[in-house]
Amino acid sequence: MRSTTGIDTATCIYGEQEVVAPLIEAAAAYDVRLAVASMPRRSAEPFVEWLSRPAAATVTRLRRLAIDTTSGSAARPLVIAWVFPEAITGDEQVARRAAVEALRGIVQSITREKESDWPPTNGIAAERRHLASVVATVAFLGEPSAAFTAGATFDLTSELGEMS
Amino acid sequence: MTVLVTGSAGAIGKACVERFLSDGHEVVAHARDAALWSGLRGVTPVSGDLLEDRCLERLARAVDGAELRAVVAAHGIAGSANVEDCHEDFVSRVLDVNFRTIPRLFRAVTPALERAGGAFIAVASQAALAGEAGNVAYCAAKFAVVGWVNAMAATATGVSLPALCPGATNSKLLVAAQQRFAAAAGVSPGQYYRDRAKQISIGRYGEPEEIAGAAAYLAGGLPRPRVLAVTGGDVLY
User: Fold this and answer.
1) What is the distance between the alpha carbons of residues B136 and B98, in angstroms, rounded to a whole number?
2) Which long-range contacts (CB under 8 A, 24 or more apart) does B191-199 make?
3) pTM of the prediction?
């Protein structure tokens, strides 16, 4: 792991850090900036704990990157990963679906705002049990051949059929 | 029949109240301060903050027993800011008002809507369909609204739940947002307005009455689209 504090490294920016530690560790092998939000397992208010707070943490992270002039190459991709527990209740499934779209909005907006003087930015949404899929996606986004992939959100929750 | 309109002091909400009144409905008009509707026949004003339970309770009481044809959730606050200016408190506030109030309001009025087979129309934005520069907090909130609508379609019974996504519409909210966009772009608000209008396929901004017309269509009771983009062709969906 390069660091858990710098803005140019793999970092857990919200929630249960120990859950995503293997992901952050694995990301060190790839040439990406990774910011991970790890949603708490049981939440009385999933709209808050799975959406509003991670969104605020993510935008705060982007803000830090925007105002920090020592954050390294603009070519090094930025990956924002939101990792969810398995959604059990109907409310949790609805909140997760809304949250994935919030992530999509953030990724699209920052891509439009910053254009070419900003790292290619993409989002990943997945369940905890599929961290390997997140790592594989991070690996892909770290490849030179992925340099044209920007502003996309990889919704691995729907790919796995939970909400289909 | 009755229609509840939130954010009725704003341009789109106000136009919705006037449209549903002219269509012969009773209207419950919510705003943080709904005094502008006091004394107007056919309108029940309800003032309050949708983040507060007591406001939701008042709204639920106001529609209890009514044949509730529709709820138009037209409230919201401006959220435009470059990412450098997006402090955490600001982002949280935009998400709270523009997203989190929507499921809270829906829960409060669901019994009345289910009884009448009504529609819950969530007014989102074209910023819910395509990311916009200088608008990251607003986009997060409005994308979440459309995500919520799509997810709820699988769970809500007997209630139509569309998202209405207006494009650039003449309103105080838009003027305020565009003043910030203009400042960021280094041009005058008037020049920004003219340049922006040229980018819209039909060459002009929308009017609040046109968005109210779309809301009346979505409240019509027959099958309707889940997401309706009314953008003058600016964002296609």
Assistant:
1) 13
2) B196/B168, B197/B168, B199/B234
3) 0.92
Please tell me the distance in Å from A105's CA to the nearest CA on chain B. Answer: 5
Quick one: average pLDDT of B160-169? 95
Find which of A13, A43, A59 to mutate to test the B interface (most B CBs within 10 Å of its CB).
A59
Are residues B63 and B6 in contact, defined by beta-carbon separation less than 8 angstroms?
no
| DSSP labels, A67-128 | H-TTS--TTS-EEEEEEEPPP-SHHHHHHHHHHHHHHHHHHHHHHHHHGGGS--EEEEEEEG
Residues of chain B neighbouring A105 (CB-CB closer than 8 A):
127-128, 131, 136, 139-144
A107 touches chain B (CB under 8 A): yes
CB < 8 Å from B in window 77-106 of A:
90, 93-94, 97-106
Asked if A52's CB is within 8 angstroms of B95's CB, the reply is yes
The enclosing H or E element of B227 equals: strand B227-230
Contact A52 B103 (CB under 8 A): no
Touching check for A56 and chain B: CB below 8 Å?
Answer: yes
User: Each residue of A32-77: pLDDT tens digit?
Assistant: 999 999 999 877 899 999 999 999 999 999 999 999 866 666 778 9
CA distance A114 to chain B (A): 8
Residue B2: which residues within 8 A CB-CB, separation 6 or more? Answer: B25, B26, B27, B28, B63, B66, B67, B68, B69
pLDDT at A117: 80
Q: What percent of chain A is modeled with pLDDT above 90?
A: 68
Question: Chain B closest CA to A139's CA: distance in Å?
Answer: 25
Closest CA to B137 of A59, A142, A80: A59
Strands B163-166 and B119-123: parallel
Kindly report the nearest CA distance between residue A51 and chain B, in angstroms: 8
Instruction: State the average pLDDT over residues A95-103.
Output: 97
ipTM of predicted assembly, 2 dp: 0.88
Alpha-carbon distance B36 to A153, whole Å? 43
Q: Which residues of A touch B81 (CB under 8 A)?
A: none
pLDDT at residue B14, rounded to an integer? 98
pLDDT in tens, A114-144: 988 889 999 999 999 999 999 999 999 999 8
Residue A37: CB atoms within 10 A of its CB come to 25
H helix or E strand, kind and range, residue B126: none
Cα nearest neighbour of A48 on chain B: B100
